[in-house]
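Forum > Structural Biology > Help requests

Title: Can anyone predict the 3D structure of Transmembrane amino acid transporter family protein?

Hi all, first post here. I have the sequence for Transmembrane amino acid transporter family protein but no way to get a structure on my laptop. I'd be grateful if someone could post the structure tokens.
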Amino acid sequence: MEKQSEDRQPNNSERNAKWWYSTFHNVTAMVGAGVLGLPFSMAALGWGPGLIILILSWIITLYTLWQMVEMHEMVPGKRLDTYNELGQHAFGEKLGLWIVMPQQLVVQVGVDIVYMVTGGASLQKFHNTVCPSCKPIKLSFFIMIFASAQFVLCHLPNLNSLSSVSFVAAVMSFCYSAIAWVGSVHKGVQANVQYTSKATTSAGSVFNFFNALGSVAFAYAGHNVVLEIQSTIPSTPEKPSKGPMWKGVIFAYMVVALCYFPVAIIGYYVFGNEVKDNILMSLEKPAWLIAMANFFVVLHVIGSYQIYAMPVFDFIENKVLVEKLNFKSSKILRFVVRNVYVGK
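Reply #1:
Sure, ran it for you. Structure tokens for Transmembrane amino acid transporter family protein below:
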């Protein structure tokens, strides 16, 4: 029995996480390389709409996250540890599963694919910046290098075991965001800077507006794993998990604000409508600083990948293979499932 519990370790198997773990996990899940594209989104939206959308997105997503935290223990004597369980409570056991499960898997697997490419691309930019005279290397090779780190980390058993990785990733997200806006301040407002839209047609303006709206919405993603994060926090009738979880969320959103608002506002103010879709490309120099920022992105995305992958591992291993298909829970099963997922 002891061996089985060692082999089979779902995300909620260790409910001993501290409140600051939720801060690390939420920052790692939410803040991504998309923050570097916020000035470009501001250029498409303009000062007024851009600031309104940025602030409203922060408020609305914080409110919806509060709702998720409250719903985690809304059923007396039971914890809704996953979106699947929440969906089953709302719509019934079968219908709820099929309404929620496909959507969550599409989001989480899709985000992991994006992060795999982003990690490889940032590693390539780091290489090209550090060694501009070196022979060009294809992006696919850098993606394979990035994946090698995931092949190692994917064998950590659950979210709790990712706390150190998540902490490093959260710090890295703050660091490359700081490089983006501090570098912009140092560069100074560009000559003949303009803040009008570059679109020459009404259709172009509308397309750019909605594209920017989507970019801002994507930047505030991260709710997909909030229930799984909360499931790792201990709870008693006297001290429910929503207390420490909400405390961690507040601190996480303070970090998000410190990352997003300076980058978006200062980046747009300095470069205007000429800002690139990645503000690091607008900074250009010094090369060592750009290389450092790209390397920080790589380290952050390494952690983000695992935050989104862990619930997928949990679902495939425990819900599908063990409970539905009667596979024996073992380290071999975990080894195969996780390696196949990363190498997919």
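The chain has one domain: 12-342. The chain is about 70% helix and 0% strand.
Shout if anything looks off.
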